[in-house]
Specification:
Length: about 220
C-alpha cells in the first residue's frame, strides 16, 4: 500500500474509524498528518478513489469510515511490521481446545494427503485434527501465517471428487512435534487445525476450553 495512504489510514483508525464513522474536517486530519488542509482534502479524495474509506456528507462535518479493503490493507501493513519487529522464524499463538465438525478425520485419512504427509511432514497424522479456537488478540498472527509459504500439500482427485491444496507449517505443543494445516482457499476461520502422530487430547489430557500455546514455524 502507498505509504501516504497507510499513514492516513492509521490516523483514521486511531480516531475510531474502523468501527464507526468519525466526524473530522480536512483541517483536523491535516493537523494529525502534519500537512496542509488542502493536502489533507486531496488525501481524503485519494482514499475514496482507492476504495479505502467511505464518506458521509449528510452532517455539518464530513464523516468517514475505513472500508473492508482499507482494513485489509492495514492488516497487511501490520503483518509486515510484525515480521520485522516481533517475528524471527516462528510465531506463538494461544488457542482454546474446541470440538470440530468431524471433517478433519475424513480429510486426514485420504491416501492422497497421507502419502504427502509422510513424505513432507515426516509423520503420518493421527486420525482427525486438534481444533484450537484462536484468541482475538492473536488474530493478526493468523494473517502472518496465511501469507507464509509453508509446506505445500497438493490437491488431487479421487473417485470423481476433488480435494484441494493445503499448506502446512511445522509446529510444537509442549515440545510435541506437530503441524498446522491451512486450506489454500481459506474462509478466514478463527479455528486452527493441528495434525500430530499422537492423539493430542489424550496425550496432553486436554478438554474443550483448555488453553494451549502452539509454536509455529514461519517459512
Amino acid at each position: 500500500m502507498n505509504e501516504k495512504f497507510a499513514i492516513a489510514l492509521k490516523q483514521i483508525a486511531l480516531l475510531g474509524g474502523i468501527n464507526d464513522y468519525i466526524a473530522i474536517s480536512s483541517r483536523e486530519l491535516g493537523d494529525k498528518l502534519r500537512i496542509s488542509q488542502q493536502s489533507a482534502s486531496k488525501r481524503i479524495l485519494e482514499l475514496l478513489e482507492e476504495g479505502l474509506i467511505q464518506r458521509d456528507l449528510g452532517a455539518r462535518k464530513q464523516r468517514i469510515k475505513i472500508t473492508k479493503k482499507g482494513l485489509d490493507s492495514l492488516r497487511q501493513e501490520y503483518s509486515e511490521y510484525q515480521k520485522i519487529f516481533e517475528l524471527r522464524d516462528h510465531i506463538l499463538i494461544h488457542g482454546a481446545v474446541a470440538t470440530g465438525m468431524g471433517e478433519g478425520q475424513y480429510y486426514v485419512n485420504q491416501p492422497g494427503y497421507q502419502d504427502q504427509f509422510r513424505e513432507k511432514l515426516k509423520f503420518i497424522p493421527f486420525e482427525g485434527t486438534l481444533n484450537l479456537k484462536i484468541s482475538p488478540q492473536d488474530a493478526n498472527k493468523l494473517e502472518v501465517l496465511r501469507r507464509s509459504e509453508g509446506i505445500v500439500i497438493h490437491g488431487f482427485t479421487r473417485n470423481g471428487r476433488t480435494f484441494g491444496e493445503v499448506r502446512c507449517h511445522l509446529a510444537s505443543i509442549q515440545n510435541i512435534d506437530c503441524a498446522v494445516i491451512m486450506p489454500t482457499r481459506s474462509h478466514y476461520s478463527d479455528i486452527l487445525e493441528v495434525l500430530c502422530k499422537y492423539n493430542l487430547r489424550r496425550t496432553l489430557g486436554l478438554n474443550d476450553g483448555d488453553v494451549v500455546d502452539i509454536r509455529i514455524s514461519v517459512e
